[in-house]
Amino acid sequence: MRPARLFALVGAPLLGLVTGLALAAPAQAQEAELVKHDWSFSGPFGTFDRAAAQRGFQVYNEVCANCHSMKLGYYRNLEGIGIPEEAIKAIAAAKSVPTIGDDGQPTERPALPADHFRSPYPNDKAARAALNGALPPDLTVIEKARKGGADYIWSIINGYGEPPAGVKIGDGLYYNKYFPGHQIAMPQPLQADQVTYADGTKATIEQEAYDVATFLTYMANPEMEQRKRIGVKVVLFLVLLTGFTYAVKRKVWADVH
Amino acid sequence: MAGLHKSDIKNPVLNWIDTRLPVLTMVQKEYGVFPTPRNFNYLWNFGALAMVVLMIMIATGVLLAMHYTPEKTMAFDSVEAIMRDVNYGWLLRYAHANGGSMFFIVVYVHIFRGLYYGSYKSPRELLWILGVVIMLLMMATAFMGYVLPWGQMSFWGATVITNLFSAFPLVGEHIVTWLWGGFSVDNPTLNRFFALHYLLPFVLIAVIFLHVAALHITGSNNPLGIEPKGPQDTLPFHPYYTMKDSVGICVFMIIYALVVFFAPNLFGEPDNYIPANPLATPAEIVPEWYFLPFYAILRAVPNKLGGVLLMFGAILVLFVLPWLDTSPVRSAKFRPLYRIFFWLQLLSCLVLGAVGAHRPEGIWVVLGRVGTAWYFLHFLVILPVLGKIERPLPLPESISRAVLGHGGGPLPGGVATAKPMEKI
Fold it and tell me: Is B376 contained in some domain?
């Protein structure tokens, strides 16, 4: 029997069976299924919706940043979502960051575009002390650090509600149907019209969540657009190279077959 | 025996070098005119592919090491700084992280190709054993590399895996303390894992050199599993197999590029983007996908030492495989029963991989145990017995007859069928 036919007879069904097994939903999944969106950045040619990302920065800046740090991000990263340089300077200058003064004493100075995003608390203990013992996770790579990525962020923001009958929620915790275990220490972070968008977009919770998820995805993957652009060229080049290589191979082998 | 080499190379400068250090003659002999069976299929690409991946891993790895900081409070941030602040750092890191997965895909195909076509049989036992050593070194290197980003999975994976050694009586605890450089996974662990992760690939190169050297003594196996009998059965490595390998490399690079550029976190666990926290255990500690079958074997028995022994045994059994398989016929093409058991063994490995990815509950416990039992049964019982009771199909007279003649079987009126172990 030729290997190909043998594979078709035995191998393929076996592989199919195993793939089925591997994909079978794990028994422990009790959290509600995340709401899936068609994001501007999905797919091999996807790019960040600049307007949504900028609105998302506004949501982050006015709401999230009150508790969450974004330690690895720089103000200069905002260039990547189309905010002009002068505006970035102004955004940074409005924040003050800790520094050591000329007298050697700790003091503060206005931030520069080259500075990391200012953290709301000087350290984790200070954050816990202020927030009922809970530590808000750093948001720089949160999109990569959660299964579902942007869909997870959107769903969590929209997942608050009354707990089902019989479910007891701990002190200082809130019910969220998408959060693992359903008890989250973060109160519902966004309300309708919590921010006022300069471009006139209506600030529903869904819209705010969509925008901030876009922004956070950008912050986690600032290289994404460049990566995909290069990727398309690399793959096209390799496909051509494969074609040529195969043609040469056929020619080389022609005399021995 | 000392003495200058008589070089055939025309170019006077190269001739001068080759006379004193005949590396060019060696390359010509081993990669130019090297007689290679003429009937390789594309599965014979995977050795060359593994070599290519190793080169990519070393190149990207050295560049990454220039920007990485092996210190527990800085490691995670330094990796993200590579992603954000180093020119094309994201490309280096994604190529390296996914290169690890691609390396294992390539090597696993290479191994199963060897199993299907009996490439481990005499006279290639040592070649096979060196291959198993290479796989072990790869596993150690990959494991330590995964610890370096110092995310949650890095930390807890390291904790779980190093703790396995504590199962050994008497010395176990000492081994673990020695591995950690302390009493828990901590900064000294990260430091030594970085040093070893940089060192082991070069050890790997040395063993690969021996693997290739052994290959060039025995010559390659081939899909028919019979030895070439003369020039009509072979082709010079160049240009025939350099070209055929090039085609495979191009196709492989397309797949690799698709992952790196469009799904760079496909093989990763999201939890590893959470900085390591010794006080918070992740809900599930899952090893990288290429360890999942072994992880499933580890968890198949309720006894810790038993599980650890079985897991190591799963690899150690491969060392004696050439002597467990008693059949004189190499290629599964001519072994109707072995062919079935080969696919069953591949299935058991895939099932074990799926088991390793799931919590040991319900059906997964049963599947894990059945898969583990089958894995060992295949090597320890089925292979030795099969060689005795199986009636292999008649072997073709020669490679050239089988390839250039009519299909596969022996030609009518052939003098005698080739003996499987016959030397050239």
Answer: yes
Q: Kindly write down the DSSP assignment for every residue of A153-174, as one continuous string.
A: HHHHHT-B-PPPTT----TT-E
Locate the chain A residue with the closest alpha carbon to B90.
A223
CATH code of residue A121: 1.10.760.10
**Contact residues, B window 318-337, toward A, CB-based 8 Å cutoff:** 333
Q: How far apart are the first and last CA of chain B?
A: 28
Q: Are B374 and B344 in contact (CB under 8 A)?
A: yes
- Amino acid (one-letter) located at B158: A
pTM of the entire predicted model: 0.91
Query: Euclidean distance between the first and final Cα of chain A, in Å?
Result: 21
Residue A229 to chain B, least CA–CA distance (Å): 9
The closest CB to that of B359, out of A26, A245, A256, belongs to A26
CB B237 within 8 A of CB B33: yes
| pLDDT tier for residue B253 given thresholds of 50, 70 and 90 | very high
Residue A240 has which token pair? 């051509």
Structural domain contains residue B396? yes
Q: Answer whether residue A2 is part of any domain.
A: no
The two three-digit tokens of residue B276, written as one number: 């390591």
- Structural domain harbouring B355: 37-404
Number of domains in chain A: 1
Cα A119 from Cα A100, distance rounded (Å): 17
| Residues facing A98 on adjacent strands | A108
**For the residues B378-390, what does the mean pLDDT come to?**
96
- Domain limits for position A52: 36-73+116-161+184-243
- What residues does A116 pair with on adjacent strands? A74
Q: Do A230 and B261 touch (CB under 8 A)?
A: yes
Predicted pLDDT of residue B423: 41
